[in-house]
Amino acid sequence: MNRSLVTLADHSREKIEYLIRMAQEFEQHPNRLLLQGRVVATLFFEPSTRTRLSFETAANRLGARVIGFADPKVTSGTKGETLKDTILMVSNYVDIIVMRHYLEGAARYASEIAPVPIINAGDGANQHPSQTMLDLYTIYQTQGTLENLQIYLVGDLKYGRTVHSLLMAMRHFNPTFHFIAPDELAMPETYKTYCRQYNIRYEEHQDFDADVISGADILYMTRVQKERFSDLMEYERVKDRYLLKLDMLSHAKDTMRILHPLPRVNEIEYAIDDDPHAYYFQQARNGLFVRQALICDALGISLEQVKNDKTIIL
Amino acid sequence: MKRQELIVSALDHGTVIDHIPCDRLFDVIDLLHLRQMTSKVTIGFNLKSHKMGTKSIIKIADRFFTDAELNQLSVVTPNVSLSIIRDYEVVEKKQVCLPDELRGIIRCNNPNCITNNEPMATFFHVIDKEQGAVRCHYCNHEQDIHQAKLV
Ligand SMILES: [Zn+2]
After folding, report:
1. How far is Cα A116 from Cα A222, in angstroms, rounded to an integer?
2. For A289, which of A27, A196, B5, B129 could close a Cys bridge (C-beta 3.0–4.6 Å)?
């Protein structure tokens, strides 16, 4: 059985809840020797320092050893070696491969040819399931449930891979989505069709102000990147309109939390960092526990084994 | 027998593929690997057709294709007529239909797809047979089969 993680799209509600419970165990006790004697490869064909450090820390805190590369320039890919050859070669040495690639579908392909499990750490504009899983974990952690939530997605909803994956993964939990984006970066029709198909309610808002976000349980901010605009005048015109300012939180629910996949540029005013609604740094920290759970699950280690683990380092 | 039919010689045993749009004739030849065939193949090109204006026809002697082989044709010629001939008689007529999966037939139109950058076979899931919508198994991009380029 192939235990690779390519996308969360096929995961059932039960599987998502199971992974959340496993991540909770690692949040309690992140330092263990559960993976002692195992070797994890991190192959980053495209640099992504945050994601790589998070995966490597997850493996290291469980006692595994890590090999790999952070920069494709030093690998043979530039010498014309195929992905298949690289994957088959590395599979000889390790128990699991965490892979980031600039091409879409690379993770699916790797999972089909590799004799060891593959974890997709992002494949082009396609999927980034560990990010989605940590978003789900954080939403659950802050709201105590994933059910019936009002989730506001703000910023780049067109190219933002994280918001698309989040939207799809939330389909099991009866959410209501609210889309707030400039016209050039509006939620694509495909995902609205997806919402209708799965009976996910959604509303689109023109304004981004205290009134609009007063109903939010989760305010999910994303980066509005200059490169995405064909018309730079348009960028200049809208860039500040999607900046979250402290005074906009005046009517927000006490339990509302602000998430952001990071890095942020100028989407969230720095004054908000000390406000109790801010949660993006804790969200990033959750990436560690979630990735510990994803690595263990891909290696065939069950929740039961994690609960009965005697290797915890206190 | 009408004169038009006689231009392409009669077949005693084999498969007739009729009503091929002329601009798709060579795609059909490629999809069925007719260039490698050792039996007799007769091809009519730019023939008159009531339905289509002009059409092409291929008669392949002593060769009967599987449904899977024939269904590949649906990608380029959804409306061809297929006749199975035994002893000069049409014993079966078939329509091609889009299969559930297409392996190694069309290219993905996403330039950033792994299938366009690695020596590997493409793989598509047919998500809407009526509309001809297919989704790449690897990059998840959806495309219209009628716009697809053959591998
Ligand atoms: Zn593709």
Report:
1. 34
2. A27
* Nearest CA-CA distance, residue B91 and chain A, Å: 42
Report CA Rg, chain A: 20
Give the distance (Å) from ligand 1 centre to CA of residue A117.
22
Our answer to whether residue A128 is catalytic in this structure is yes
Q: How many CB atoms lie within 10 A of CB A61?
A: 21
Most B CBs within 10 A among A104, A108, A193, hence the mutation to make, goes to A104
User: What CATH architecture is B13-96?
Assistant: 2-Layer Sandwich (3.30)
Neighbours of B128 (CB within 10 A): 13
φ/ψ of residue A261, rounded to 5: -70, -10
CB contact under 8 A, A104 and B117: no
pTM: 0.89
In chain B, DSSP finds a helix count (H) and a strand count (E) of 3, 9
Residues of chain B with CATH 2.30.30.20: 101-147
* Nearest Cβ partner for A105 among B119, B138, B142: B138
Residue A225 confidence (pLDDT)? 84
SS3 letters for A135-193? Answer: HHHHHHHHHCCCCCCEEEEECCCCCCHHHHHHHHHHHHHCCEEEEECCHHHCCCHHHHH
Q: How many CB pairs under 8 A join A and B?
A: 49
Q: Do B114 and A106 touch (CB under 8 A)?
A: yes
- Is the pLDDT at A49 greater than 60, yes or no? yes
- Contact with chain B for residue A125, Cβ under 8 A: yes
Contact B79, B49 (CB under 8 A): no
* Predicted confidence (pLDDT) per residue in B33-60, tens digit: 999 999 999 999 999 998 889 999 999 9
Mean residue pLDDT across chain A = 94
User: Which CATH entry fits the domain spanning B101-147: 3.40.640.10, 2.30.30.20, 1.10.3720.10, 3.20.20.240?
Assistant: 2.30.30.20
Measured CA to CA in angstroms, residue A52 lies from A56, A122, A143, B81 at distances of 6, 11, 28, 56
Asked about A50 being catalytic, the answer comes back as: yes
Domains and CATH numbers, chain A: 8-127+287-307 (3.40.50.1370), 129-283 (3.40.50.1370)
Q: DSSP letter for A51, please.
A: H
Cross-strand partners of B43: B58
Angstrom distance (rounded) from CA B99 to CA A41: 39
CATH 3.30.70.140 domain position(s) in chain B? 13-96
Q: B101 CA to middle of ligand 1, Å?
A: 14
Task: Spell out which residues of chain A touch residue B112, defining contact as CB-CB under 8 Å.
Answer: 102-104, 124-125
The answer to whether residue A190 neighbours chain B at the CB level (below 8 Å) is yes
